[in-house]
Design a protein that fits this description.
- Homohexamer; trimer of dimers.
- This is Putative acetyltransferase.
- The active site is at residues 126, 401.
- The protein has 401 residues and is α+β, with helices and mostly antiparallel strands.
- It has helices at 14-24, 35-39, 96-110, 164-177, 189-200, 246-257, 302-308, 352-359, 365-370, 381-389, and strands spanning 4-8, 47-52, 58-70, 76-87, 115-118, 132-133, 136-143, 158-162, 207-213, 216-226, 234-243, 262-270, 286-293, 296-299, 316-321, 330-335, 338-341, 348-351, 374-376.
- The strands form 3 sheets. It has a 7-stranded mixed β-sheet, with helices on both faces.
- A hairpin with a 5-residue loop joins strand 3 (58-70) and strand 4.
- The longest helix has 15 residues, at 96-110.
- It is globular and about 65 Å long.
- The model has no long low-confidence stretch (mean pLDDT 97).
Length: 401
């Protein structure tokens, strides 16, 4: 078996790592003209590579950018947004990914990072490393011809169009000022650079619209129109929409549905609780075309994560098992008064991956217990656990990386 060496990538190795990752996604390498901009999206000292110790060849890579995660109760914890994970096709299933994940976890733990999150290209990969589905989203199609707003829906404020360069300057501040629900994350300068690169490379023009309320900008959306032929309308693909209040949500949707030469609007990755269909006299104007996993979460520091979020109801003793990061394994008394390690008998037992699924409120402990992912001990514990982990709104990230 090949001996593996894992280390932080040097700046001159980043392009090779980028090409390896893109090859893993069956994409061609980026061009010489594109690379200088793409390189600026890499945060220094956050890029790992696994090498063949004999040949020195790069076999796998993963990277992350610093962020923070909003948890139930409104606190934010240090977060690593993990992306760029790839293994050479001729070196898969030889321990390269396992080595990458372990090295990254050790690095994150050493820096005091509470959690890591990612978007999974395949659903069967990351659970064995302690990741769990922590936020869910849905896909929508809104038929313009049927979408008539109910009379009581807010009229919204003024909407302003921005070009991409201006959007890159202004959207970071607007996003940072918006209210954040559990699951949302801060967007670093590296994320905004990556977004700008991706939108620049889109085959159709990308439009940015900002909504202005009484106190200034309070929401924005980005979209492109595809499939339009001369004499025919096309489909608007909503790339993102963030609204700080009901007026901004309604105002942005009024603007989008008022764009000419568009028959329908498709949107992916939208919050489960976003009331788009309730805007219209005919709720079937908005069709839910799919629901699925959004982000996967890995709790790197379980005690810190448990202490950071708010809890409701009676306290419980929760036993967590983590075969990779052993410092996370233990029993914790969890309640609204705080979190502490304990030797008391556990009332809820689950692995660190299942804990990640319940942590932001996406899944109830009782649901995980029904499929053997958690164990509940004692009468009434299921109801108490569900109340303890419950949240007012379903968690949602809304930031693809």
């Amino acid at each position: 078996m090949t001996d593996l060496v894992t280390r932080t990538l040097r700046p001159e190795e980043l392009r090779t790592a980028n090409a390896l990752f893109r090859a893993a996604l069956h994409a061609k390498p980026i061009s010489d003209e594109e690379w200088p901009a793409a390189e600026r999206a890499y945060q220094p000292e956050r890029n790992l590579g696994v090498f063949d110790s004999g040949t020195g060849e790069l076999l796998g890579t993963a990277r992350s950018t610093d962020a923070d995660l909003t948890v139930p109760g409104g606190a934010a914890v240090p977060l690593a947004a993990v992306t760029g994970v790839g293994v050479r096709a001729d070196r898969t299933r030889r321990g390269v990914l396992t080595e990458l994940m372990r090295a990254q976890f050790d690095e994150l733990a050493g820096r005091g990072v509470t959690a890591a999150t990612l978007y999974a290209t395949e659903g069967a990969i990351y659970g064995r490393f302690g990741y769990g589905v922590a936020t869910l989203s849905r896909s929508l199609t809104v038929r313009k011809a049927r979408a008539r707003f109910r009379p009581e829906v807010p009229s919204g404020g003024e909407c302003e169009l921005l070009d991409l360069d201006t959007a890159l300057e202004r959207l970071p501040g607007i996003y940072a000022d918006l209210p954040r629900q559990p699951g949302m994350m801060a967007r670093s300068s590296y994320w905004w650079r990556s977004m700008w690169i991706a939108l620049r490379q889109a085959s159709e023009p990308v439009v940015t619209v900002v909504h202005h309320g009484p106190r200034g900008a309070d929401g924005f959306a980005q979209y492109r129109v595809v499939g339009r032929q001369p004499g025919f309308s096309g489909t608007m693909r909503l790339l993102g929409l963030h609204a700080g209040n009901a007026e901004a949500l309604a105002g942005l949707w009024r603007f989008l549905l008022g764009v000419d030469l568009v028959d329908e609007i498709t949107a992916e990755g939208r919050p489960l609780g976003e009331p788009v269909e309730l805007l219209f006299t005919d709720p079937r104007a908005c069709e839910v075309t799919g629901t699925g996993d959004e982000t996967w979460l890995r709790l790197v520091d379980v005690p810190a994560a448990l202490a950071a979020r708010a809890w409701e109801g009676e306290p419980l003793v929760v036993e967590v098992t983590d075969p990779v990061l052993e410092h996370n394994t233990g029993r914790f008394r969890v309640g609204r008064d705080g979190v502490e390690r304990t030797r008391s008998s556990p009332q809820l037992r689950l692995g660190v991956d299942a804990l990640a699924m319940t942590y932001l409120g996406a899944w109830r402990p009782s649901a995980l217990a029904q499929v053997g992912r958690a164990q509940l001990a004692g009468e009434g514990i299921a109801e108490r656990a569900d109340r303890l982990f419950g949240t007012r709104v379903a968690p949602w990230c809304g930031t693809f990386f």
